[in-house]
Amino acid sequence: MARKLTVARVLTFVFDVPIVAMFSFTMFYLFRSKDLLSFLITLVFIGIIPLFAWAYLLKHPGDYKGERKVSFIIDAVSYPLALILLLILKKRNIYTALSLSYVLNVLVLIVINKLGYKASGHGAGIGGPATALAFEFGGWGALSFFLLVPVGYAKVKLGDHTVGQFATGALVSAAITYLSFALFGVL
């Protein structure tokens, strides 16, 4: 039993929101848009800076609820900075659409959670990027939706979320990503 919990916890780190974001942005940079500045802005503000929430766990080992709160705070500050920078630079591309998606996702998840329902950030962290990858890369990108299975299993097994909470995060994020892509005309 303990081994499964250890593997489950490792899965939550390997597929944490900033890690999946960095992977997604890298795929877009390598295979779609060679806009280095936009790529670097999103990589730093949506990928690297949010990883600092892990520092909380170094100081408070095992306090995953506390890390979740710190993560939401960092994301709520860092994601809008990426979007603002891209808009100031007049970038209207896939990175801007994705930045808007991340901003709206964190805000909606904060509201849902404040209303007493614990929607999954991990579900959202895979559902949104998987939607973006599917739109941009078709069937190959759609394969990323399969990441929802092991990560969802891990979050439920750890008792962090129910299946419904995980699915809510994924579905909300997929819808927001679709709307963000439609707003920026990158569908």
SSE blueprint and pairings:
Elements: H1 2-14, H2 17-31, H3 36-48, H4 54-59, H5 64-88, H6 94-114, H7 121-137, H8 139-142, H9 148-157, H10 163-183
Helix pairs in contact: 1-9, 2-3, 2-7, 3-5, 3-6, 5-6, 6-7, 6-10, 7-9, 7-10, 9-10
In percent terms, what proportion of residues is strand? under 5%
State the oligomer: single chain
- Average residue-wise pLDDT: 94
- Count of alpha/pi helices: 10
Count the domains: 1
The tally of beta strands, per DSSP, is 0
What gyration radius follows from the Cα positions, in whole Å?
16 Å
| Helix percent band | over 70%
Uncertain parts: none
- N-to-C terminal Cα separation, in Å? 44 Å
Counting helices, strands and paired strands, the structural category is: mainly alpha
| Largest beta-sheet characterization | none
Shape: globular
* Topology as a string of helices (H) and strands (E): HHHHHHHHHH
